[in-house]
Amino acid sequence: MNQTPRTIHEVINRYNQAFRLHDPALLEDLISDDCVIEDTSPAPAGARHEGGRASLARWAGLAGDPDLSFSPEPAEIVGELAVAPWILRWGPGTDDWVRGVNLIRVRDGRIVEARGYLKA
Hints:
Layout: H1 8-20, E1 31-38, E2 48-50, H2 52-63, E3 69-72, E4 76-78, E5 81-89, E6 97-107, E7 110-118
Parallel strand pairs: 1-7
Antiparallel strand pairs: 1-2, 3-5, 4-5, 5-6, 6-7
């Protein structure tokens, strides 16, 4: 367990690293017990994952998927909110990618809320 509260920058950097390196273990102590994730799929409204275990399970599945390539872009930080754009690739084709953004709220060094959106 982390003894020193992490900054929002440290949380977002480690979150991104988990997805880039396909290492879900990096997420384990980043997610609060009461975290809520609103996902981008299934369309049109996405799915809602409530609680730390459900949130970790969802993200661990994505982060650990070797067929996905996650490329984060620089995040804008406003207080406890990170606006974190990304590109997700799932194949070698020219159309096998999507651009999106996560709105990630961090309190006391842990993610408490995340909402994902895709660019149409």
